[in-house]
């Protein structure tokens, strides 16, 4: 319905407020009209009195009645030279009902008298007292009927109300057209832009372009544009993740078969008599086993969720030592040293495979950052515990993370710190730690290096999976 629209309601409110303003003007106007009407009767009565005095009161009864009828009064009393004189008189149909002295009446009194006059339909006889014009005496007093006064006030009031209605309609129409042009039309444009965008949010051509000249509407359009840009970017990222998930699922299927064959050969290497091979074989077997397990669980980040962690009691030192050995081997001739400060007896509750992946991502990122800086550096891993949680710190003496990387650190495809990096490592790591009910945070990153903190709770009450569900 029209009245339920912004335009309709604004139109009705405009008419209402304009009529209210006219009513506030109407009451004083009617009071002013009544005062002018009474003053005109006093002036007419004074003229009739002066005409009589000019003839030394030698006029006939018929002429006196005509003078009184022309003045619209029953009798006239003048006070001149301290003497009160009844100049013109005629029979009064009824006793005087009330007297009004216009010489001392204030605005409030005049308004109250006017309202009572309109509310009383009964014809009355009233006495009106005022000052003669042009100093022709000290006082003039007349008696008159109220019927013609009330009819004149009603006629004047109706004309005022009609004029007010016309002004209200014209004002409301002009305001309606102005509001429709300045507010309603731009708002409809924003709504239409939102509807078009909702039909195809991936289409950047449908993102609104701010054009409103009204500051508030321009701010709304700008905010909507920013929101649409962010949403379109998020949808594109989601699509990329879905595509990546599909690709990884296909790759992991074939890679699993390849790694299974490699695992068979690694098992045979364990039976070799060569001491060097015997030392390296367990690590190779372990690495291949983790790769096979990874393929079997189908890490498809962006399409499939990580499986809930299989919690068990694990020796942290063994996992750290395994990760550091692998990274030390990968470092080759890079000038990177490793420092482990993990109590030998520190046992925590975690999924060993997932924790291994988290530490590998963090330590590998640190090693690559030091290598990219082309200077010697050190990576430190230390751990401790308190009554509530186990805490693991991974530090490095690299160049620190750039501001852009810190801003989107744990977001896939946005938090990469090196050329060619996808930023998936930290995104995967924070998801795995969150699956343990813990947190992975960046404690510091500056020119002296970077520090990450992993905090795993000891409480078994609530453990949240990567999708936010309780595991």
Give your account of this protein's structure.
- The protein has helices at residues 6-54, 61-71, 107-119, 147-199, 215-269, 275-297, 316-331, 352-373, 403-407, 424-435; strands at residues 75-80, 83-88, 98-101, 125-130, 139-145, 312-315, 336-341, 347-350, 377-385, 389-396, 439-446, 449-457.
- The protein is an alpha+beta fold.
- The chain has a five-stranded mixed beta sheet. It has a five-stranded mixed beta sheet with strand order 7-9-10-12-11.
- Helix 1 crosses helix 3 (107-119), helix 4 packs parallel to helix 5 and helix 5 packs across helix 6 (275-297).
- The longest helix has 55 residues, at 215-269.
- The protein is rod-shaped.
- Residues 250-460 form the Histidine kinase domain.
- One of its GO terms (molecular function) is ATP binding.
- Its EC number is 2.7.13.3.
What fraction strand?
15-25%
- Structural category is alpha+beta
Radius of gyration: 49 Å
Low-confidence stretches: 299-304, 461-471
On the 0 to 100 scale, the average pLDDT is 80
Record the strand order, biggest sheet: 2-1-5-4-3
Treating each run of at least 4 consecutive H or I residues as one helix, how many helices? 10
- How far the N terminus sits from the C terminus, by CA atoms, comes to 52 Å
Oligomer: single chain
Percent of residues in helices comes to: 40-55%
Number of strands: 12
Any idea how many domains?
2
Largest β sheet strand count, sense and barrel closure = 5 strands, mixed
Please tell me what the overall shape is.
rod-shaped
Task: List strands and helices in order, with pairings.
Elements: H1 6-54, H2 61-71, E1 75-80, E2 83-88, E3 98-101, H3 107-119, E4 125-130, E5 139-145, H4 147-199, H5 215-269, H6 275-297, E6 312-315, H7 316-331, E7 336-341, E8 347-350, H8 352-373, E9 377-385, E10 389-396, H9 403-407, H10 424-435, E11 439-446, E12 449-457
Parallel strand pairs: 3-4, 7-9
Antiparallel strand pairs: 1-2, 1-5, 4-5, 6-8, 9-10, 10-12, 11-12
Transmembrane segments: 6-31, 160-179
GO molecular function: ATP binding; phosphorelay sensor kinase activity
EC number: 2.7.13.3
